[in-house]
């Protein structure tokens, strides 16, 4: 059977960008930058992007393009005893999928709430007590599935499923070509309104004010590299699967370059959006901005709703924000499920429709665990482990196998250069062989020590 293909270069880039841009760009990057030197963070961040992000993306695009398979097939073709690494990456993707979808479900709920701010005047109590029902946490209750969370999670599954089920070109590409422009327009619209609110400039000043003393701090560098690996969706099966559907004559390096630049550009936009709203909120509440900055779940479902309550026209800006969050999440979700589905198709020869149905069915069943009263506790533990060990470990294993065990990087460089106007030099090999593994080792080592404490 002939392998499916993307319909156009733009379509492929939209899909790859859709995977890269996710909840992390919106709720993780702004906080990272703020915490790690503000404007000065852009120096290590740019460095990480050039020395790790772009080469890693070129490597994955080349591997997927060359081997024409999802992760297990890519690694099986690289070495007969290496297929397990592909399945390990697929497992990482699967685990991420089952809790990522829960957060998208919350976001869909909040999209509904935002039209009338039904979270009320105390969004903190609303989120934890009323929505997640965390107050009701006695052991006998922990396993209760909450239907008001299950329903939006099922909606998120249905959207993801229909994209993956409908195929690379007719489903994933088509969805990405709608979702990505929509996402950019929404975020730019939000910025255009919010950056002119009182206090917004103060917020942006906090985000961008450079603290150059931080540049000498090793933890700032490891934060920058950690964010780059996380944000680009490399190292756990996704970009391998996506690039395996590229037509033969695609320009690999250029595509990789564009994907990375668009993702990182979006992160800066998201930073401007988040810090405008935080600055406005601090201004309205008469507190210092340091008291309102947050990341993650607390930012999206507590701080932002609190800020929305204070906004002019909250019934427009609120839904825009939660629709943007939902779209960013869904396009990433689609890519994770495609990584798993394409591995199953490669291995079993099942039709796409059958494979997608099985994968989504099993994953949906597992994800109901995150809609229970104990869901947030479970999510915190799994997310922490995946971010600090799973993703980075998977990236490191890939680099060790390709760069050291197989010594395959010079050949991949040639492979990419034969198919691109953008010539890459030996820096490609150096960055992936030495710099990235060394940094990953340091970050993983630090995280392990942290886990033990
Ligand atoms: N790159 C995504 C982000 O920044 C993260 C992600 C994508 C995680 C796909 C898992 C799967 O949010
Ligand atoms: Na996304």
Automatic annotation (TrEMBL):
Keywords: Membrane, Symport, Transmembrane, Transmembrane helix, Transport. Its main location: membrane. The chain crosses the membrane at residues 12-30, 42-63, 84-108, 149-168, 180-201, 221-245, 257-282, 320-345, 357-379, 385-406, 427-452. It is a multi-pass membrane protein. It is found in: Membrane. This is Transporter. Belongs to the sodium:neurotransmitter symporter (SNF) (TC 2.A.22) family. Coiled coil: none annotated. InterPro entries: Na/ntran_symport (IPR000175), SNS_sf (IPR037272).
